[in-house]
Amino acid sequence: MDFPVSREGKPFLPDINDLHFNLSHSVGELAVAFSRNEVGFDIESKARRANYGDLARRFFDAAEARAVEEAGDSVREVFFRLWTAKEAVLKLEGTGISGGLQRALISSETSAELDGRPVFLGRVEWEGYAGAVASFQEIAQLRLRSLVL
Ligand SMILES: CC(C)(COP(=O)(O)OP(=O)(O)OC[C@H]1O[C@@H](n2cnc3c(N)ncnc32)[C@H](O)[C@@H]1OP(=O)(O)O)[C@@H](O)C(=O)NCCC(=O)NCCS
């Protein structure tokens, strides 16, 4: 089904103001976040390999890049936690990556800032995948449901 999209490409439900969604896919998995508020969502396969240090130096804030460099054996986990959180924040805004990954500053597992505006984060994780949900409102509850067809 095709949804209408914003100027920057973010899909939305037509004629429904109190239900929002955002979707993400990675290596054969499709995940959708639904929320009463505007939402951003990004997942990554845990099997995905990359040059984490290089990417972090290029796209992350200095403190975030340092966290990746100092992560030792947890480098992949730390990198993807930051990456999915940043993408989720920019998908919340609706700009996507073109909004500039460095504008989304990740302060903790549950908080971020976008140009100084507070953003709330939630982590989701299931076999082989992990991701982040971002909202401008506090995330009171995060429920994960899986659907296998
Ligand atoms: C679209 C974008 C966010 C996808 O990121 P990704 O990690 O590669 O892919 P994900 O699977 O997590 O997300 C893709 C989904 O996000 C949604 N999406 C697309 N654009 C979006 C946006 N600007 N904001 C929020 N969500 C968006 C769509 O549902 C898309 O699914 P689809 O490819 O099946 O249509 C990324 O490509 C991007 O930031 N693009 C820049 C936006 C852009 O270039 N816009 C051009 C018009 S100005």
Give a quick set of tags describing it.
five-stranded antiparallel sheet, alpha+beta, 7 strands, binds coenzyme A, globular, Ribosomal Protein L22, Chain A, 149 residues, 3 helices
Q: Please, could you describe this protein's structure?
A:
It is built from three helices and seven strands. The protein has 149 residues and is of the alpha+beta class. A five-stranded antiparallel beta sheet has the order 3-7-6-5-4, covered by helices on one side. Strand 6 (117-126) and strand 7 (129-135) form a beta hairpin. It is globular. Coenzyme A binds at residues 8-11, 22-25, 42, 87, 91, 94-98.
Helix/strand layout:
Elements (H helix, E strand, L loop, with lengths): L19 E7 L2 E7 L3 E7 L6 H8 L2 H8 L5 H19 L10 E3 L4 E4 L2 E10 L2 E7 L14
Bound molecules: coenzyme A (COA).
The site of coenzyme A has 16 residues, from strand 1 and helix 3.
Quick summary:
This protein has a single domain (20-135), classed as 4'-phosphopantetheinyl transferase domain (Ribosomal Protein L22, Chain A). 23% of the residues lie in helices and 30% in strands. It has helices at residues 52-59, 62-69, 75-93; strands spanning 20-26, 29-35, 39-45, 104-106, 111-114, 117-126, 129-135.
